[in-house]
């Protein structure tokens, strides 16, 4: 029986620039046993090459084919909806590259979509332009709705915060493609060539990773090395299939090819 993993990164594999102890051993076991997996991220800033290089420098020797970002999911979705379309983008390199690779032109006049991702290089003038374009008929699309992003010195506003501003200013609701959207969750699973029953989602966030996995019928594993504590579980109507302190706790099961995990 083939089984595979969809794995969140920040809070699961690393925290900021620090590798979570045992995460490298876990991923190396997946590579050694040729178990299919993808790293899933709601961060649209970096390209797949950038993300793979960061992991490689941490001692996790993966390449671009192991990375699946919300920017990729968004660009593929838009290409399916309107091939060779146009977009006004509030975001950075990862999102821009994904759109270009999927046949989209980035414009600042009469776009089909206003697409919003993470970034720190935009200004209020760009937000004003986005509001005007949305009011003129462009559809508002979010790579994700995460309200904040963790940093070594605390959280900063995320894509969801920017989108909320645009929604309030225009009265239009954004369509989101990133986790927990089934669009991204399904697209990533298909990338691995697995069925829902063969897929396990590992994450540290109940509202995105675990919710997305539960909605898709995947097995779900919550790690407590990130944003969620065991006491938080009582606040949710859904539960993960398994709770562990970190992915290091899964190493023995993967080594034994235990179906209770994979």
TrEMBL record:
One of its GO terms (cellular component) is cytoplasm. The active site is at 8 (nucleophile), 10 (proton donor). Its EC number is 3.-.-.-. Mg(2+) binds at residues 8, 10, 204. Divalent metal ions. Mg(2+) is the most effective. Substrate binds at residue 179. SUPFAM superfamilies: HAD-like. GO terms for molecular function: metal ion binding; phosphatase activity. Keywords: Hydrolase, Magnesium, Metal-binding. Gene3D superfamilies: HAD superfamily/HAD-like (3.40.50.1000). Signal peptide: none annotated. InterPro entries: HAD-like_sf, HAD-SF_hydro_IIA, HAD-SF_hydro_IIA_hyp1, HAD_sf. Its cofactor is Mg(2+). It comes from the Bacteria. Belongs to the HAD-like hydrolase superfamily. NagD family. This is Putative hydrolase YutF. It comes from Maioricimonas rarisocia.
